[in-house]
Specification:
The N terminus is likely disordered. The chain has one domain: Lipocalin, CATH 2.40.128. The chain has two helices and eight strands, in the order H-H-E-E-E-E-E-E-E-E. The protein is globular. It is an alpha+beta fold.
């Protein structure tokens, strides 16, 4: 039993190095830039998010490598694929139905 606990602890400590991009996004939040405008997005563990100082509110869920959202701004669910292996501080481009945006994980 002790060996199992030690193995589990080692794996848990190793996980951040291999952190899943969407786990990082939804726990740390993002700032995305679209058409020169920075938008700060905060996600909560209960599947909700806010942006633009609370002007945009909505729900999120993960579907494989995609982050799916719907909001008071766009009630139709939109799913966007995120690259693997990104972590806090990384920036990258994503392309969705509204076009391409640069995302930075906080």
């Amino acid at each position: 039993m002790r060996r199992l606990l030690i193995t589990a602890a080692v794996l848990a400590l190793a996980t951040p190095a291999l952190a899943d991009t969407l786990q990082e996004v939804t726990t740390k939040g993002i700032v995305f830039n679209v058409q020169g405008m920075d938008v700060d997005v905060t996600y909560t563990p209960d599947g909700k998010f806010t942006a633009l100082n609370g002007q945009v509110t909505g729900e999120w869920r993960i579907d494989g490598d995609k982050l799916c959202t719907k909001s008071n701004y766009d009630p139709t669910e939109q799913c966007v694929e995120y690259p693997k292996g990104k972590k806090s501080g990384d920036s990258f481009d994503v392309t969705g139905p509204q076009g391409t945006a640069t995302v930075k994980i906080k």
